[in-house]
Amino acid sequence: MPELPEVETVRRGLLPAMEGQRIALAEVRRPDLRWPFPERMAERLTGKVVERLWRRSKYILMELSGGETLLMHLGMSGRVLVSGDPLGQFEYEHPAAEKHDHVVLHMENGARITFNDPRRFGAMDLLVTGQEDAHPLLASLGPEPLGNSFDESYLVDRLRGRNTPIKSALLDQRVVAGLGNIYVCEALFRAGISPMRKAARISPQRIASLVPIIRAVLAEAIAAGGSSLRDYRRADGELGYFQHSFDVYGREGEACRTCGAPVLRMVQSGRSSFYCGACQR
DNA sequence: AAGTAGTCCTGAGTGC
DNA sequence: TGCACTCAGGACTACT
């Protein structure tokens, strides 16, 4: 379930098992995901210590001893399972290998990190630590929505004159990095803005109002995801509790929580937009 | 330049 | 039970 809050939840789940720990063995079970893996990836990971685990947009970056950083993206269907009991923190045994377990990191501390991705829209690459901004996948990303450079004046400037629907503009990773279909739908509902409205035809005040709303939606989702790490270790496939808090996403035909009108769905550039036709203008 | 379709891939769910 | 069909959290590429 990877949008920014889910990726951040995964990162936090990996921290206790991986940070400062050595990869005893990297198992790479196929040659590619969306793109071919880098040359000799298994050998380049094996024996390295994970010195820092951070996130940029929907990418997890694993800084390794030896000067390389592993870049990971979970695509649409990517999952990460932490198993084992290295520090007495993990209650569950290693599960049996499953279909689509493409990469497995066996940590020296006994933890096992399994990357599973049925649709294989995910990606992994190795880059030189310190040169992250030059990587093609990261180079044109916009600001982090929870960071300081994402503020009201930035968003107003960035969207000024844009003739595209606000929904598409917010999904554009060059505008703001890390939002996906769910959280754009939710933020637009809270802001009372129709997903079909052209960005250029929304007042600066309403554009500005999106900034604190986007931050709040993401922060709440991260908090809910964090609370469910135990579920995640249980490997039941469910990430977080925030899906129970959706106002519009996936609620077509159900009552708007504000006005009671049925939630509507329409397709914009191939993606479903959920919205309240009465509350969002 | 900006905006929009088509595309990769597998699995879950639905209706007949 | 089987089959055909739709849909899915992303984002790159190739069009207009």
UniProtKB/TrEMBL annotation:
Organism of this sequence: Poseidonocella pacifica
Subunit structure: Monomer.
Cofactor(s) required, per the database record: Zn(2+)
Gene, per the UniProt record: mutM
SMART domains reported for this sequence: Fapy_DNA_glyco (SM00898), H2TH (SM01232)
Protein name as catalogued: Formamidopyrimidine-DNA glycosylase
EC code(s) of this entry: 3.2.2.23, 4.2.99.18
Example GO biological process: base-excision repair
Family named by the database record: Belongs to the FPG family.
